[in-house]
Amino acid sequence: MSGAGKTVCVTGASGYIASWLVKLLLAKGYTVKASVRDPNDPKKTEHLLALDGAKERLHLFKANLLEEGSFDSLVDGCEGVFHTASPVTFIATDPQVELIDPAVKGTLNVLGSCAKVPSVKRVVLTSSVAAVLYSRKPRTPDVVVDETWFSDPKFCKEILAQESGYVLSKTLSEEAAWKFAKEKGVDMITINPSMVIGPLLQPTLNSSVKLILDLVNGAQTFPNLTFGWVDVKDVANAHIQAFEIPSASGRFVFVSRVAHYSQIVKTLRELYPTLNLPEKCADDEPYMPTYQVSQEKAKSLGINFIPLEVSLKETIESLKEKGFFSS
Ligand SMILES: NC(=O)c1ccc[n+]([C@@H]2O[C@H](COP(=O)([O-])OP(=O)(O)OC[C@H]3O[C@@H](n4cnc5c(N)ncnc54)[C@H](OP(=O)(O)O)[C@@H]3O)[C@@H](O)[C@H]2O)c1
């Protein structure tokens, strides 16, 4: 019980990744202060309050990314701060308002609270490969992406259309966070996961798992896209390891496997031959190429990646169990 007697906090605790993080922190004996936007919404809190250890060691706080000082009472008395809260949607009508402002201002808001509180030893920020992949370097099967890659905001705007709001929000918020942490001497680590899948603890559907649900829910085609994929349990665990291992520093990219959608569909078909899966790609262009991602730093945190096949199976089982689809 490495966390016994220690207090940490998690922002956006009702989210997909954060719910797993809270579960694992409680299992390790930590006392967890958890922020949610609406503590009176049972959909956001019931699954957290039902976790083992929650009765004794979970404390809920109300906080909003856009309210200055909102996180002061949350981080007060904490040794570790896990900042996961950030809007995740790949479609936004006003990306600046819906995504970029809460991500950037919210991150600076949380870090501002951390800088005021002497108890805080380390901040672990949930960034994304979105803040890594969109440099001007090509991504092809022989290229290895690693932690030295930084997305270029100008390039994001040039090449990405609809989804650029989310990519930009993660790129700009990580950039602002590093600047702030260096200036104020905050010990910060970023976890940069790719598309996260695996079982859900929360009762609602989150954006990354929805990509898998869409495939099994009657889609006629699959997108011509290649993503890195990683399991939610590995990502949550990585956050804790990054806090607990004193020598850990900098960024950690987390990708179990890079795969085109056609590969995801093929694996799902092998796992579930009776599922109604799309046969065709959405366009006739060559498939978006794959690339490699270095796992060296990630493995230094002691993570042995859960295989993609296992994550996909557990995602489907979880979606069925929660009633998101039947068959
Ligand atoms: N899932 C992925 O594939 C993936 C990959 C890489 C990085 N990430 C990063 O991981 C983090 C968690 O993502 P997730 O997939 O777990 O998404 P999620 O389930 O949608 O969780 C996002 C959380 O952010 C909170 N939030 C959004 N706007 C807020 C605001 N204005 N004030 C306070 N809280 C706010 C949400 O609160 P409510 O519950 O109140 O809405 C929710 O708890 C994000 O930083 C995301 O960028 C996710």
From TrEMBL:
InterPro entries: Epimerase_deHydtase, NAD(P)-bd_dom_sf, NAD(P)_dehydrat-like. This is NAD-dependent epimerase/dehydratase domain-containing protein. Keywords: Oxidoreductase. It comes from the Eukaryota. CDD domains: FR_SDR_e. Residues 8-248 form the NAD-dependent epimerase/dehydratase domain. The keyword Oxidoreductase applies. SUPFAM superfamilies: NAD(P)-binding Rossmann-fold domains. One of its GO terms (molecular function) is oxidoreductase activity, acting on the CH-OH group of donors, NAD or NADP as acceptor.
